[in-house]
Amino acid sequence: MPVNKNAFLRYIVIDSVLLKRHASLRIIKEKIENELGEVISDKTIKNDIAILKSSIFKAPIEYLPRKGYYYANDNFSLMGEKLEKGELFTLQNAAELIEQFSGFEIAKKFRVLIERFSGLELDQKKTILIDKKNSRGIKNIDIIANNIRNATCISFNYMLHNEEKKNRIISVSPLVIKEIKGMWYLVAWANGLSEYRVYGLDRMSNIRITNDIKYISPAEFEPETFFKDSIGIWRYSDKDPEKILLRVKHPFMNYLIDNPWHPSQKIENQTSEFIEVSYFVYDCNELLGLILTWCNSITVISPQSLKDRLINHLKIGLELNQ
């Protein structure tokens, strides 16, 4: 039987309590609510204990009226045997990676949990570094992710990128959080507009639950395929993806072969001097930005609209820098 992730977290907390002492239902409940930040009922805890005692986990949990629940076998632990050294190193690397994103609430608890269950103190030495280009939005991840899991609508103040940098109040049904090049975004269903919208987490503030709006998750929404025709965060509702054909000169062509811009990348023609490569994506600003970065090595063959936009940007750039 598959185990719900939130339920398994409760099992871990129950296990940590029973490893130390007899515990009443009240003590177990307080510990779970303090550790996980969620309100649960006595019935849920009793169901969790019943599952732990079942053939799935085989926990030797007994109950004494005046003392509460306890492990009849002092050697039992839900986590099983102690971690091997290699397994501990793997968890330590995972903890270090998570801690790079210091805004995650889970990062504050993950190292403590590992040390609790391994019985060892993890090395504090840094061995992994991540280039955090923009960490301002990370602090919003936990609250948004919780509302996605709970299927609740949210409202927030959103800073517009205009001259006045005005704030607009937005109300949406949050669907999934996506990271691209160190930037974090929320894909949401805009209830009032009946369409998908994407918002930068770094531009969001004062996020709160909105109970007077019905949560909507369109039946066709699939997080893994939502951006399949996109380069970056751009996904259009008013136009379709199209075939993009580029000619790429040596030596950049070798880099592009090894580091495709998109899963749809296909080499149509190849010589020792150049390749002709195609994509099936939206003609978007992020695609144009990539081409501009390597404009001394790339010729846009089609579509003409992309070629025209490239020429216009190059003309403006030339005028600004003469």
Describe, in plain words, how this protein is organized in 3D:
This protein has 322 residues and is α+β, with helices and mostly antiparallel strands. It contains nine helices and eleven strands. The chain has helices at 5-18, 25-36, 42-53, 85-100, 105-118, 141-149, 252-258, 285-293, 304-321; strands spanning 61-64, 68-71, 154-159, 167-180, 183-190, 195-200, 204-209, 242-249, 266-270, 274-281, 298-302. The strands form three sheets. A five-stranded antiparallel beta sheet has the order 6-5-4-3-7. A four-stranded antiparallel beta sheet has the order 9-10-8-11. Strand 3 and strand 4 form a beta hairpin. Helix 1 (5-18) packs across helix 2 (25-36), helix 1 (5-18) packs across helix 3 (42-53) and helix 4 runs antiparallel to helix 5. The longest helix is centred in the C-terminal third of the chain and has 18 residues, at 304-321. It is elongated, with a radius of gyration of 26 Å. The model has no long low-confidence stretch (mean pLDDT 83).
Keywords:
alpha+beta; 34% helix; four-stranded antiparallel beta sheet; 322 residues; elongated; 9 helices; five-stranded antiparallel beta sheet
